[in-house]
Amino acid sequence: MAGLAGGLVGQPAAPFSHGPLMVSQNHRFLQHKDGTPFFWLGDTGWLLCQQLTREEAEKYLADRKAKGFTVIQVMLLHTAADRNAYGAPALVERDPGRPAEKPGHAQAGYDYWDHVDWVLAAAARHGLYVAMVPAWGTLVKKRELNDQNVAAYAGWLAARYKDRPNVIWMTGGDIQGDVHHEVWRRMGQALRHGDPHHLITFHPFGRTRSATWFHNDPWLDFNMFQSGHQSYEQDTEGPDPKGEDNWRYVAEDYALTPVKPTIDGEPSYEQIPRGLHDKAQPRWNENDCRRYAYWSVFAGAFGHTYGDNSVMQMFKPEDKDPSFTPKKPWYEALDDPGARQMQYLAKLVRSRPFFERVPDQSVVAGENGARYERVAVTRGKAYLFAYTYTGRPFELNLGVLPGEKLMGWWYSPRDGKSKSIGLLKNEGVKRFTPPGTPAEGNDWVLVLDSVQQGFPAPGTVLSGD
């Protein structure tokens, strides 16, 4: 199956057996060295290495693997004063140029970097990649990480982790690339020099894109943007506010040359207040998380990252000063509905030829809806997906797929189940009416297949591993 044209294969149970990750031949996706497709389904476990014991980390990683995630995004340094759950410090005298690598923490037996090593190994046992931010942007703003020590720190990290099978590097860390720009460039260069085989990107500030500053840098393998946590009403500043339209960021990156893959590395988190800082604001829910995921992937992103307010900071009831008023501890929030529902997007795109998929809004007939009413379309050579967040009726121009007949399906992003709507003539303009009553969160994907392809039901991932 791994050799099928177009990459119609399932995610392997042991992805490292297919070789390291690399950018696909068409520069739009990621794949393994042997050509096996890789769909980035990320979870933001930012404070995993700081907050969780090994037993807790094992619980978290096992849960995310079971829910279909493939990448965990973490910070190696949140602040210069970081300690792990065992009390071991990350740095000597708060200097990133001097990692505290004394073997064995005297009190608990686990020093900071030994614990990071263990987390990486545990993630590998679960077949998970770890996308590591070497240092959050605040360390650079405070000049704790600077021109004098960044190369030493990044070089030390590269030497320590270059042979791990499941490492991805994310420079940046919720910061604009023009804030001490040279520090971020030196970090990327030092990582690439010391670790030529692992992928590298840049995690930017909310409502910004890595491509703005680093698209042409050779160390940047793929672009990342942070669509952020603001609503349409809150995002009103700047020359081109996009609000909740994260697909617009994808479209901007998709049009760039040279071509590089792109992904939303931080959309609105489940159960976080809109705009982050006002706890009286409504909280983003699983419906919003699904909308961000399907909008961005159907616009051309190579994967998607999900986040949960409690899980991203590994909130515990005893924490004295949590961020953004989480309402439940991390181990309960693991089962927030959005986390379970993300896997259905991955299963859908992996049930059809992978590398040939492109965005194609021209298929929508007439005026498309605005904001929540928008219909997002992506297609391959012999299949088409059309996503509606509200489940409103819409019209499509048929005839873009080969053959006289199409097989139609309604696929639910909420539970991954599909309903056949039978055979359709592949011609003219046709109106489609999704199941249920139109409303926010009554989202559906219309799947149209050329009959002669004999594709299985949507979401049925073929596996030959």
Topology:
Elements: E1 21-23, E2 30-32, E3 37-38, E4 40-44, H1 48-51, H2 54-66, E5 71-75, E6 91-92, E7 95-99, H3 112-125, E8 129-133, H4 137-141, H5 150-161, E9 167-175, H6 181-194, E10 200-204, E11 208-209, H7 211-214, E12 223-226, H8 247-254, E13 262-264, H9 286-298, E14 303-306, H10 309-312, H11 330-333, H12 337-349, E15 358-359, E16 375-379, E17 383-388, E18 394-397, E19 405-411, E20 418-425, E21 429-432, E22 444-450
Parallel strand pairs: 4-5, 4-14, 5-8, 8-9, 9-10, 12-13
Antiparallel strand pairs: 1-2, 2-3, 6-7, 11-12, 15-16, 16-17, 17-22, 18-21, 19-20, 19-22
Helix pairs in contact: 2-3, 5-6, 8-9, 9-12
Kindly estimate the percentage of residues that lie in beta strands according to DSSP: 15-25%
Low-confidence stretches: 1-13
Overall pLDDT metric: 94
Helix content: 10-25%
- Radius of gyration, in Å, reads 22 Å
Label the structural class.
Answer: alpha/beta
Task: Please tell me the total number of domains.
Answer: 2
Number of strands: 22
Looking at CATH, which topology of the largest domain would you report? Answer: TIM Barrel
Domain Apiosidase-like catalytic: 24-356
Keywords: Hydrolase
Domain Putative collagen-binding: 358-449
Protein name: Glycoside hydrolase family 140 protein
